[in-house]
Amino acid sequence: MSHSFPEMIPAPEVDLLSPMLDQQGDTWTASFRGLKLRTALQPIYSISHKRTVGYEALIRAFDTDNSAVLPLHLFELPDSEAENLLLDRLCRYLHIRNYSGIKDQLNWLFLNVSPRVVTSGSQSDSFFGALLEKTGLPPHRIVMEIVEQPTDDAERLKDTVAYYRKLGCLIAIDDFGAGHSNFERIWNLSPDIVKLDRTLLTRATEDQRARQILNGMVSLLHQSGCLVLLEGVETRDQAMIAIDAGVDFVQGFYFRRPCLELEELPQSLADLEELLQDYKKRKQITQDPTQQLVGFFSTPFRRATEKLQQGQRMLQACFELLNHPTVSRCYLVDDKGVQIADTLVSDATIRNQDLRFLPLENTTSADWFRQQYLRQALAQPGNLHVTTPYLCVTGAYMCVTLSLAYQSEGRLNVLCCDILANTDQTP
């Protein structure tokens, strides 16, 4: 069946779309270009709450033989901006109709909307306000997902997002971390939720550095005031990566595939309790390896500080430390954070020195006060502290730093020791 659509669709057009929907029992379907459209919902889970907190609505299309049509092919059917706009709104209308019939008066409904659609026309999406009024679904239960891609009219997109927010909806940025994504849109739109693209998780599964970047991105988004959802979780290992990264919400085939049988959704439970228990066991078994370093290096570290207190020179005091194969350098810092004398570098570090970073090697009088390990040591003299792995600025390799503050001639000094975070790497 074909339709002829006007170039501009009058707004609000809820009444125009209503005849394209059909109710069968508690389920609604829609017709478009001879295809039957149905709603599929995929649960979104909060790790901390250990339960479902929302559902993403996805469109599924079927031909007259009830064979599935790829969503990509469905959205290629519109041959004008007006028809593209109508299809987008028809999908949202269908999803809201179906979701309104689910016996769930708490959780969110995530709706996808393209920047090309929300920036079309002369009005902010006034259709949506009329739709919510007609269906009775409270706007605070809607999360509008803006696909992370370039848009020709950033200001109109910003106005439209402001309209959704004024209605009372939450705003999410979708597919962040892929393609054209950047933090400028985070700053401009101030979303409530950021959905990280599955490619970030795929890379984190294969590459430890990518996992550290993922963890850092989650932390930065949290500092920006955004909740973080990681989609595309397909395996148990990926679920563990998501938990360890500190994301708030997860979504993916590992937990539940999109479901057309909407009445089954309230029973779509995920065993997050068991996952979290497994995560805790793994953390206990592999208990932050940096903490193991404290136990291993505690005795030689204290011997070194005792020798320094007795007036021995740095080279003599740190001889035992520098001869350990994982130790790259030792250095002394005063209570103001300023380095005292030159850094002592291990023989292995000298042999494997990367000449490209030679300008960073001389650290005489360097100021390390910004470093957390220095401030922690000064705040708790006599306690040995250790950092998580980080990029060493003096050699551009991953390391952890041990630090201990001790009294010397009436003032505090801090002995610091950099240790390779990965024993396979060479500085």
Automatic annotation (TrEMBL):
<dbReference type="InterPro" id="IPR035919">
    <property type="entry name" value="EAL_sf"/>
</dbReference>
<dbReference type="InterPro" id="IPR029151">
    <property type="entry name" value="Sensor-like_sf"/>
</dbReference>
<dbReference type="InterPro" id="IPR050706">
    <property type="entry name" value="Cyclic-di-GMP_PDE-like"/>
</dbReference>
<dbReference type="InterPro" id="IPR001633">
    <property type="entry name" value="EAL_dom"/>
</dbReference>
<dbReference type="GO" id="GO:0071111">
    <property type="term" value="F:cyclic-guanylate-specific phosphodiesterase activity"/>
</dbReference>
<protein>
    <submittedName>
        <fullName>EAL domain-containing protein</fullName>
    </submittedName>
</protein>
<feature type="domain" description="EAL">
    <location>
        <begin position="20"/>
        <end position="272"/>
    </location>
</feature>
<dbReference type="Pfam" id="PF00563">
    <property type="entry name" value="EAL"/>
</dbReference>
